[in-house]
Known about the structure:
The chain has 5 helices and 7 strands; from the N terminus they run E-H-H-H-E-E-E-H-E-H-E-E. The protein is α+β, with helices and mostly antiparallel strands.
Amino acid sequence: MNIALRPARPEDASSLAALSIEVWVGTYLRQGITAHFADYVLSEFTPARMEALIHAPDQTIIVSQNEDGIDGYIRVSHRCPDPLAGGHQTEVATLYVQPRHQGKGLGRALLLAGMQAAREAGATSIWLTTNSENAPAIGFYLAQGFERIGITQFLIEDQAYQNDVFARVLDH
Length: 172
């Protein structure tokens, strides 16, 4: 399979917002959608917010694009300390691949590109969080050399959801 990766451009903002909503809702809302989650998703994943992230100097966004459009992306946040004070300063803030394109190597290719961008920015390690119940993501990150270093909470308003924190030393 030919995987085409490139830096995100401002005109990608609406595609990134739509892809984010698709992946987030499909991954975390398996029993139905409540206003609590719908309000979060619709305020978090907007074209304006995505465009702001594309322009932000402390963010790197790389997209995977097939002949029909964007099918995945990674967002790396620089100068973003891990929640456990473990000394990791670069975060994989988002790694989303459309469900119908999973299992084709896109996630791994995006992760490798994100780790390369982190290295180029001077990072020696990288960290991320994933929902503690997201077994496929946990298995993926462990297979990519990440180690679970603790837990944290993901907050939506006054509700907390347990997330596992993973980190990996970047080879230079």
